[in-house]
Amino acid sequence: MELLCPAGNLPALKTAIDNGADAVYIGLKDDTNARHFAGLNFNDGKLAKASDYVHQRDKKLHVAINTFAHAGAEERWKKAVDNAVAIGTDALIIADVGVLDYAANKYPDVERHVSVQASTTNLEAIKFFKNNFDVERVVLPRVLSVQQVRQLAKSSPVDLEVFAFGSLCIMAEGRCYLSSYMTGESPNTVGACSPAKYVRWQETEQGLESRLNNVLIDRYQSDENAGYPTLCKGRFEVDNNVYHALEEPTSLNTLELIPELMAMGIVSVKIEGRQRSPAYVEQVAKTWRMALDRYKQNPNDFAVEGAWMQTLANLSEGAQTTLGAYHRKWK
Amino acid sequence: MKLSLGPSLFFWPKAQVESYYHQAKSSSADIIYLGETVCSKRRELRAKDWLHLAREVASEANKQVVISTMTLLESPAEIQVLKKLCDNGEFLVEANDLSAVQIMHDLKMPFVAGPAINCYNLSTLKVLLKQGMMRWLMPVELSGDWLKSILHEAEDAGVRNQFECEVFSWGYLPLAYSARCFTARSEDRAKDDCQYCCINYPEGRRMNSREGEKVFVLNGIQTMSGYQYNLINEVSALKELGVDIARISADNEQAFIQLDKFKQQLTQPEHYPLDGVNECNGFWHKIAGMSIAQ
């Protein structure tokens, strides 16, 4: 089972590889990827360097082109595919059906993965991608339970990759317009959720307030930790009851599922966080490498170490982790 | 331009659904969509009941009836029901997931690509046309300019005559789908023990900011806009773009009135000032969806 780590820049990429990643995924420096943040991602020169670093060490490089191509500007997404292929990417991670069609026709020999943003949650949808674009792999959205992943793994005609650790998207990815509803910009269209330029912090008499495009997302008392106002993780009011109506600030952590995921034949576990620092990448890669190696050495006696969980919790939103939808009770 | 009544996104008791579609038969809608699109646990009507209802509406009203299907399908059992609906042999089907596109293609039957199919550009449109798409509903987050661009490209590519274009024009917008049920969560219950509580909220549950701003509506696993989307003042623009159908989303109170209003707007356009605390049209104008461009 491949350990697939995120990298938002060259230092993070090197850190990932040096700390045990089997493969790294990156995005280009424009709105063709779903982490389109200032100061992040790879221009043409950096892309070539990334490819060299990864390939000299016999590891794999995946390039994410996982936003939806804009009407009248499809060339930009096609160019992104061309660039990724030109530097020798091992796989293209694509969300848009039109972009997949382009990649499949122009570069039939370059491996294509269906991005999580394509929201492929069942066998018939997998068949759609297999039949039309001969994809090698599908990245499953974080909405399925372990039982559902197992069922899919049994019947899927293509390899499956799952999210293992990182920020938890609680909506079916690629099917969420909450961010554009509030700000005009969404992951699908501009490659960002709850974009930073709309965030405002304000100290008030009632506490520290976070706003997104002027909508109050949360208000913190002095003893509470304030988190980034991702709009689905704020506190809202439903019939006079104020609570995290959608989700609490928390991260997904599936260390304890390693034996099950292995048994199902999942080909890759993905770490979220291209926007995070090299230090984050280092800690997560190292911890997951240790856990995966430990399992391989002794599959029958695998136990998650407390120290691993602690390291990962410290890197998590709200310093807490969850099994998310993998665990039915979360739903 | 024709008008459609979109599927009810809410969970209503069977009798209420039946009386609603009884009323729909004499409404201003030319096309009626019906079926469950949000949650497979909502079983007041089963597949055969929806088809029965569709037959009744089709036989008694001069309207096209379309079967709408689920958006987030996670289990083989849900796919089985989807197949049954797709293979109904009588009615056009609205696909809201690529699984339905795949099934309709296998059946060699035409379909409508619904709002949850991510079709953002001409290349995707062309793939869907090859699969058998005969009507396309633009994703709700896209703007009038975006639509104009795609339709021009479709014209240039010589495919514009191969599909009808429909635009979500009135109602609470379906914005997101989750594995989690937010209505059950609002009652402090897990989804497995939801007790079908959506039925107690025929218009969903309001989720406001702590300053009382109507931010979203919780509708089971679906999150909807807190304001009603309203393109009543854009009807002329829709017509000019060559949009074939404007969709009015079914709701408890206003959909039939809105259908009449939109119908009137087709022949005698009037400007309606929008209500800033209940309505929005931002998506159409390429600004925050919840805002209004008057």
TrEMBL record, chain A:
Cofactor: [4Fe-4S] cluster
Native organism taxonomy: Bacteria, Pseudomonadati, Pseudomonadota, Gammaproteobacteria, Alteromonadales
Organism, scientific name: Litorilituus lipolyticus
Similarity comment text for this entry: Belongs to the peptidase U32 family. UbiU subfamily.
Coiled-coil region: none
Function: Required for O(2)-independent ubiquinone (coenzyme Q) biosynthesis. Together with UbiV, is essential for the C6-hydroxylation reaction in the oxygen-independent ubiquinone biosynthesis pathway.
Keyword Iron included in the entry's annotation: yes
Name of this protein: Ubiquinone biosynthesis protein UbiU
Protein origin, superkingdom: Bacteria
From TrEMBL, chain B:
Binding locations of [4Fe-4S] cluster: C39, C181, C194, C198
Record carries keyword Iron: yes
Pathway: Cofactor biosynthesis; ubiquinone biosynthesis
Cofactors named for this entry: [4Fe-4S] cluster
Gene Ontology biological process: ubiquinone biosynthetic process
Domain of life: Bacteria
A GO MF label: 4 iron, 4 sulfur cluster binding
InterPro entries xrefs: Peptidase_U32, RNA/ubiquinone_mod_enzymes, UbiV
UniProt keywords, alphabetically: 4Fe-4S, Iron, Iron-sulfur, Metal-binding, Ubiquinone biosynthesis
Functional description taken from the UniProt entry: Required for O(2)-independent ubiquinone (coenzyme Q) biosynthesis. Together with UbiU, is essential for the C6-hydroxylation reaction in the oxygen-independent ubiquinone biosynthesis pathway.
HAMAP family: UbiV
Summary of subunit composition and partner proteins: Forms a heterodimer with UbiU.
Annotated family: Belongs to the peptidase U32 family. UbiV subfamily.
Protein name per the record: Ubiquinone biosynthesis protein UbiV
